[in-house]
Amino acid sequence: MSNSKLAIAGVVVLGFTAFQAAAALSNTDRDFVQKAASGGMAEVELGQLAQNNATSQLIKEFGQRMVTDHGQANMELQRIAQNGNFTLPTRPDSKSEAIRRQLSGLQGSAFDTAYTQSMLSDHQEDIAEFQKEAQSGEDPALKAFAQKTLPVLQHHLQMAQAMHSAK
Fold first, then answer.
1. Among 92, 73, 89, 82, which residue's Cα sits nearest to residue 33?
2. How many Cβ atoms are within 10 Å of 137's Cβ, its own excluded?
3. Assessment of whether the complete model's pTM goes beyond 0.90
4. Domain spans of the chain?
5. What confidence tens digit (pLDDT) does each residue in 81-114 have?
6. What CATH class has 26-166?
7. 28-69 pLDDT tens trace
8. What b/e string do you get for 92-107 counting C-beta neighbours within 10 Å, with b at 16 or more?
9. DSSP 8-state class, residue 54
10. Is residue 56 helix, strand or coil?
11. What is the largest CA-CA distance in the chain?
12. Cβ contact 54:112 at 8 Å
């Protein structure tokens, strides 16, 4: 067999192996991975936006916390994906992108209000998704990731509630 045929065969085998690993994820795990990765990227982007557009120092600091915490979680999820041979989305989903577009057009107190409300609803949704994965996920690494990250998300929700109350 020629070198080019061997190379093609190797690519096919590697591609099939990656496909098998991705196919091995349950629907619940696959949905969780997509939402967690997309949401994590969005949190980092929105946190950066908060640092630039917010007037409240509390909201600017919260934005920095989102960049730090979700950035770390994103890197951990990426390592899990590499070890599990599955692919993560490369950008936030369309809902998150629409929120980013809306918030990027706001400044000052209008931004502060909209961002705080977004963080309240987003973290409530995130907590529900992470609880579901922590309780019923099938992939041990994803389940452990959800269990480890859940208290951080709960703390973020508490912080968002405090920001909302402080207005």
1. 89
2. 22
3. no
4. 26-166
5. 999 988 999 999 999 999 999 999 999 999 999 9
6. mainly alpha
7. 999 999 999 999 999 999 999 999 999 999 999 999 999 999
8. beeebeebbeebeebe
9. -
10. coil
11. 71
12. yes
